[in-house]
Amino acid sequence: MQFKQNLLLKSNTFEIFSKSFSEVSFKNAYFMASFILKGLRWNKNYLLAFIDNHVIHYPTPINLTYAWSFGSSAGICLVIQILSGIFLAMHYTPHIDLAFSSVEHIMRDVNNGWLIRYIHANGASMFFIVVYCHIFRGLYYGSYIQPRQLLWCSGVLIFILMMATAFMGYVLPWGQMSFWGATVITSLVTAIPVIGQPIVDWLWGGFTINNATLNRFFSLHFFLPFIIAGITIIHLALLHKDGSNNPLGVDSGVDKIPFYPYFFVKDLFAFFCFLFLFGTFVFYFPNSLGHPDNYIPADPMSTPAHIVPEWYFLPFYAILRSIPDKFGGVAAMGGSLVVLFLIPFTNTSEIRSTTFRPIFKIFYWLLVADFLILGWIGQKPVKDVFVLVGQIATVFYFLFFVVLIPLIGVIETKLAHLKTNE
């Protein structure tokens, strides 16, 4: 009897405790759920407002042409490269004895591995095509002129990081051109007096290209695209800070329309045109932009007859080869990139668009031709005639950015003021 009373007492106590605990737990759970939902609602509204302000209702000059679609296409290329690279990294082995075989494994054994690899390899070329067009468009329409100096500089920084990422990615298949390209390009650092050789040994992780080098290149190649994505966000923030430029090169004021749907549809059409070109290379000419020697496993004892980088490096490679001195060539190649940062600060013109700059327009198209000539010279063997043409093209390249941009700006400004005074 006593046992039953104790059991009943404990049961009532437990029931009271459970009921109290349930009420407290329910109140706490309700409070937490309300807090989380309110937080999500605030974040949702904030996120939607951000997208609305910077994508949907972003004020865009009404007279933008398809030349302004290269920026959005470049962003899509970056996303394609990151996604395809992640899938390739799942099957790639960064080891000098297995890297080449792992690439062949991706091509032969992985479901649609050939497609992922061709998308990634040709996507790099398409990325550079779009970015080169984007740069030359900005140069033509004066997108570097105040107040967009930082916007231009951030874009140049993205371009340099792209080059570093692409170079390290070209080494990963560990074919003949990968190995010897890495050997030649990294050895250029030895041109730096005193500290050059220690830096190269540090880059290699030894006294020659080895497994540590391949692992470092793979790690950096995987990591740098996310840095590029972060700087791209900064690039967009700087763009939206002062607004987009336009073909006339004048402030649009209130003569703007929302980005969506007008320019969204225009960019979408440009993307499908780009996708058609991209698909043509991926499905019909997947190896046309590569080098056949890279389908031969890396052999340190056999040097290829002609070592050339990927086509998008050729203009800068031609500048490197145009100067016989090793240190001078390295300095010239580095200077050819650094000089791009100086354009906003050496410009003296009060007119943005080259459409209204007849003198500058002539030299602009000469620069385009000069850049193409440098690309052609970069793939040619080192012979006297090609070296001479490369030297002339290199001189004009630096002359344009260092001398002609400020000089032509002064001349055109004086002529414009003279015409106004008349």
Automatic annotation (TrEMBL):
Function: Component of the ubiquinol-cytochrome c reductase complex (complex III or cytochrome b-c1 complex) that is part of the mitochondrial respiratory chain. The b-c1 complex mediates electron transfer from ubiquinol to cytochrome c. Contributes to the generation of a proton gradient across the mitochondrial membrane that is then used for ATP synthesis.
Pfam families: Cytochrom_B_C (PF00032), Cytochrome_B (PF00033)
Name of protein: Cytochrome b
Keyword field contains RNA-binding: no
One Gene Ontology cellular component annotation held by this UniProt entry: mitochondrial inner membrane
Taxonomic placement: Eukaryota, Sar, Stramenopiles, Ochrophyta, Bacillariophyta
Keyword Acetylation set for record: no
Subcellular locations according to the entry: Membrane; Mitochondrion inner membrane
GO molecular function terms attached to this record: metal ion binding; oxidoreductase activity; quinol-cytochrome-c reductase activity
One GO BP: mitochondrial electron transport, ubiquinol to cytochrome c
Cofactor mode of binding and number, as noted: Binds 2 heme groups non-covalently.
